[in-house]
Structure formats: C-alpha cells, structure tokens
Amino acid sequence: MKTLIRNADVVVTMDGARRELAGASVLVEDGAIAALGPGLIAPGAEVIDASGCVVTPGLVNTHHHLYQSLTRAVPGGQDALLFGWLKTLYPIWARYRPEDMHLSTQLGLAELALSGCTMSSDHLYLYPNGSRLDDTIHAARALGLRFHATRGAMSIGESKGGLPPDSLVEDEAAILKDSIRVIDAFHDPRPEAMTRVGLAPCSPFSVSRELMRDAALLARDKGVMLHTHLAENDEDIAYSLSQFGCRPGQYAEDLGWTGADVWHAHCVKLDASEISLFAHTKTGVAHCPCSNCRLGSGIAPVRAMRDAGVKVGLGVDGSASNDAGELIGEARQAMLLQRVANGANAMSAREALEIATLGGASVLGRAGELGSLEPGKRADIAIWDLRALQAAGSWDPVAALVLCGPHRVRHLLVEGREVVRDFRLVTLDERVLAESARRATARLLA
Fold first, then answer.
1. Are 266 and 326 in the same domain?
2. Residues 311 and 421 placed together within one structural domain of the fold
3. Most CB contacts within 10 A, which of 145, 186, 395, 396?
4. Nearest to 284 by CA among 297, 272, 302
5. What is the pLDDT of residues 64-117, one digit of tens each?
6. Is residue 433 part of a domain?
7. Are residue 268 and residue 380 in the same domain, yes or no?
8. Distances from the Cα of 356 to the Cαs of 116, 133, 138, 395, in angstroms?
9. Cα distance between residue 361 and residue 359, in whole Å
10. Same domain for 288 and 140
11. Are 135 and 98 contacting, i.e. CB atoms less than 8 angstroms apart?
12. Angle at which helices 133-143 and 172-186 pack, to 10 degrees?
C-alpha cells in the first residue's frame, strides 16, 4: 500500500538537522516513510494533496488518564488543589463500569487525534466494578491510535493513611499478578507496535514502598517501562518529606525508579539536584502544563530540565483536571509558561513543537522509529491546513501551528492508515461518541 502526501507548503522533519522542506512530498509504503523531498512520483499511490498545508510528525501524548473524560468540569473539584480535587472525584470514579472505561478512552483519544496526536500513553490506576486495562486497549485499537497502556494501581487506602477510599485500592499480590497477565497478553516490543504496556503504580501517596520496588523489578524482568506521578505540587513534596524523610527524586532513586525506561508525570517541584539526577540517569518527564495551571500546582522547570539534558514530552493529563484534551494546545501552553517564568525568549514555538513530537517519542522509548519524518521511520503523520481562519495572516507557517493554530488537524495517518480525513474521524462516528458520552455522564450524575 502506497500513499503520496504531495506538495506540502512545508514538511517539518524533526530530523537531526531539524530540516524544514518547502514544497516537499512524503511517500509512505507499508506503514513506513519511504522517501521525502520535492517532486516525488509514485504511480498507483493514493494521493493526499497537501497544498497550503504544513506536514509534521504526529504529536505524542506522554501522560493521560483517559477514564476521566466523562468527568469534566465537575462541581466541587473545579477550584481545588490536587488532594482536594482527588477527594471530590474518587467517589464518582468508584461508580464506573467497564463500558465507561471503554467509552471514556475512545472519547479522549478522539479528541487527541483531532488535535494531531498519533500516539498516547494512558495511566489507569483504578478498576471499579470489574473494569480492566483490557477495556482501554480494545477501545484504542478500534480508534486506530498508537497506544501505550500502563497498568496503574493503588494499594494504600484511607484506613492505612493513604488518600484514596478503601473501595478503590487493590491487594498488592493481585496487582502484580494482573500486571504479568496484561504484559503477556498485550505488550508488543516490535518497532511497529501499536500497543505497548508499562507498569505504573499511581503515586508515592497511594502505594507502598514494597509495591514500587516490586513493580520496578517486574518491569525490568519483562522489558517494559515504568511510570508514576512525582513532585506534582507542594503537598506532594510535604508528604514525601514527612512520610519518607526525603524528597521525591531521592525516593524514586532509592526504589529503582530512575533510568531510560522510566518517565515521571508533572515534576513541577523538582529541584536542581533532582533535575541533575534525571539528566544523568536519562529519566523522562511528562510535562502537563494545562493541568498544572488548572490545579494551581505551579510552573514546571522545563527550561532547566531541557538545558540539563532531561528528556521532556507533553501530556494533557486527565480531562477532569485539564479539562480539554487538545495536545497542540499543550505545546502552546508549555511555551507560554516558560516565557512567564523565564522571559520572552525562554522557549520558541519550534522548540515547543519538538517537545510535542520527538520529545514525546524519546520519553516513551520510541525515538528510534517515531517522532520525526525520515526514511525508514513509521508513518505517523499530521497534516495541518494553514488556510484555516485561525492561521490567516500568519507569516511563519511552522511557528503558527503553536502560536495561533489551526488546532484541528486536516489529515492524520497512523502507521500509514488514515484516522482523520478532512477534519473528521474516519474510524468512529464523532456524533455517536459524543451522544454516548452524554448518556454515560447523565447516569454518573444520577
């Protein structure tokens, strides 16, 4: 199967030289990029006319809680800090059914796809009423995005000094047993993999030291990645100091939670020593700028992280704390926050776009096959129409993607297959999905 993306105004490669090719085409064969440059000819190929468009690598979302897509703008949690927000939402999530997990995952992934995202991770750490990680994996397969599912967990409930209600925590032996099951059933280590599985105990305040350590040992035995929340806000730091006698970075290192196979979400409150630790251990960070703003957590030191050599990708986080799920909007917010903290030249639009593409692929351990447009890499491609109203009047089409838009992709290819065509999902019906979500939310409200 061949597809020729023809005559783009600009192809943003994100290759080693960060080339931007004017008037170029991209040839896709059997799910991979075969060639790119001006004047490509491919007899018999399906042609996508990219005139007036900018072509970029697909965006990569490194942190999400897709189950939260049915709990946006919940009263009582709209103006709370992290811990209070969680206390408001836990009882609602406890009412979820497996079909809610499936629906919420598709809703969140659909929104991501329409904003140019071709690959998303997901952190699912609660399993009420028979829900399983399988529900989200099957949902992602139907939609057609590349999916990094993580088997999250909570094991310390309120009765043991934890934050979640006891009804939402699990036995630690059962957690490890199910972790083995989902890895064996779904993890695909191949370069072209559409589904990978990682292990992701929720946070230092909801699982034991023993589970953190055992999860790290299991992940390395199985060859999968590790993920959790870390240093998200001042409450998080205070908890670590009072309960563990150390900062979160030291806690992570002591339990085997640093390395190229680990990425942590948020990291808003990392200090200089922790940034240095993450840099020399090649530990990744999922930066979630909109969620950090929404919960009042602060501005993550992304400029310092990048300058030190820390791998940084973007995450929209859960739609209960964002409340949107548009990844290209996260790139803009990331850029703006670094400018607020460090000055107007602290981060360019192009650097923000790099973090959203190649940066995310690096964090998820997939920069060898994804994150840039180069021959031999997988064909995960976003095509943005700069003739849209949002971009009208822009002089620099690449910077415009971050600075002004468009924020809805015209075409999206994953593994060379169309997921979005002419601004619409082709794998699912958006109207049916939205109506199903309204019904599910009404039931949860009741």
1. yes
2. no
3. 145
4. 302
5. 999 999 999 998 888 888 788 888 999 999 999 999 999 999 999 999 999 999
6. no
7. no
8. 10, 26, 25, 22
9. 5
10. yes
11. yes
12. 30
Mean pLDDT across 165-188: 97
Residue 320 in this model has a pLDDT that exceeds 80: no
305 lies in the same domain as 338? yes
Positive or negative torsion for Cα 254, 255, 261, 262: negative
* Number of structural domains the chain divides into: 2
pTM score of the predicted model = 0.97
Same domain as 77, residue 139: yes
**328 and 414 both lie in a single domain:** no
Average pLDDT over residues 312-338: 93
Show the tokens assigned to 75.
Answer: 């009263």
Under the banding of pLDDT at 50, 70 and 90, the label for residue 194 is very high
User: At how many degrees (to 10) do helices 82-93 and 234-244 cross?
Assistant: 90
Residues 391-420 pLDDT 10s: 999 999 999 999 999 999 999 999 999 999
Q: How many CA atoms lie within 13 A of 270 on its CB side?
A: 32
Whether residue 234 is contained in a domain is answered as yes
Q: Tell me whether residue 368 is in a domain.
A: no
Q: For the chain, what percent of residues have pLDDT higher than 90? A: 89
**Selection from 62, 55, 59 nearest residue 117 by Cα:** 59
Last residue of a domain, one of 339, 363, 387: 363
CATH number for position 317? 3.20.20.140
Domain that holds residue 211: 59-363
Q: What is the CATH number of the domain that holds 51?
A: 2.30.40.10
Same domain for 110 and 83, yes or no, is yes
